[in-house]
Amino acid sequence: MGAAISCCCPRRRRGAAHEAAGLTDDILAEIFLRLPPHPSCLRRISLVSRRFRRVVTSRRFLRRFSDLHGGAPGAPLVGFFHNHNHHGAAGADNRFIPVGVDGTGHCHRRRCRRAGAAVARNPGGVLAVGDDAEWHVIGCRGGRVLLLSPTRLRLLVLEPMLGRRQYIPAPPAPDYRPSYFSNAAVVSAAGGHDELRPHLFRVVFVSSNAATKRSTAFIYNSATFRWTKLATAEMSSVIDGRPSVLIGNILYWHLISHGIVSFNLETHELHEILVPADAFDDVHEANLSIVVPKNGGIGLTAVSGYILQLWTLRDYTHGASTWDLRKIVMLDALLPLRNARLPPPPSLPASAKPLPLVWFMALDEEENVGYVWTLAGVFAVQLDTMNYHKVLGPVCRGMQFVFPYKSFFLPQGGNGCKVMT
């Protein structure tokens, strides 16, 4: 039986298929569901026999496997959702960029991952926001995309690869009103992935009243279809629109100025953490980005020009925080920028502030990989080792931040799914 579920013994394919001859397809599916969440495992299983391939490529099995492991570490990056110019072309939804795309929107096959190429050949496919193209993307995690309606009174949890859409109302008044600053995150159900109910999720919503400077945290549970008000705290500023970062059981967001919102998913505590006073933020507030330190806790990057600082939080009490500067990196020496053929910068009015040379667009919290925008393209930088690779060509300079989307499954003809190779 062990040979039947191994991903490391391709030479025993015939024996594995023979040993499984007495098992029903349902039993095989239950076995295969417990494979390590890596795309190569399903691919190798599908090569054992026609029967194994039929089981692991069925729509029902792929939905269950994606529910359990779709956002697990090891799922490859497919591309990025964004909100830049999404009101532009009438009826078009251009808010997904597959990996490997250059500045013109074309995908160079030799340099493009198969994931990005497959999506690039399927514009308007399952990764499109579709009927809700006017909605604003505010979160992306575990194979789900979270959007907020133009009226700010409804939310949408979209599972692009599975074709699922669930609409939910925004938290109730008076603790939330459309005029309040707000942000939200989608996370798995309590206790992680539940094998019996893997489709369940939670939405954490934080609302900030600019007049009172009080922020309120709510949780929506998809099992009960209800919002619960959990905590209220006074902050020095209001929450801004940058994506959340999940580190352990704590969600973090940025405040508009000089602070971080911290919400504990277990204790439901809501706090403000002050950012280091010596960090760069003279070019733009969004040069500060939350990251995952190597030794745990919470970290922060600060970018000015080509200089990147890495900070870690050493101590925190209500109203005070102590940060340590761990590393300074010269990005023009690290990344291949000096000899790159850079496009000319856009012309700006004389009174306009110069655009930054480098921009931290997003974080892969599972791998602690930062996606860094430059004139030469977007680079994925592993912040512990500083290893990097290029994922996009020069894309629009006005795109401040993006939402990385990872999945094991790609569209096939716009209807089904196929296992990534």
From TrEMBL:
<dbReference type="InterPro" id="IPR056594">
    <property type="entry name" value="AT5G49610-like_b-prop"/>
</dbReference>
<feature type="domain" description="F-box">
    <location>
        <begin position="23"/>
        <end position="65"/>
    </location>
</feature>
<dbReference type="InterPro" id="IPR001810">
    <property type="entry name" value="F-box_dom"/>
</dbReference>
<dbReference type="Pfam" id="PF23635">
    <property type="entry name" value="Beta-prop_AT5G49610-like"/>
</dbReference>
<dbReference type="Pfam" id="PF00646">
    <property type="entry name" value="F-box"/>
</dbReference>
<dbReference type="InterPro" id="IPR036047">
    <property type="entry name" value="F-box-like_dom_sf"/>
</dbReference>
<protein>
    <recommendedName>
        <fullName>F-box domain-containing protein</fullName>
    </recommendedName>
</protein>
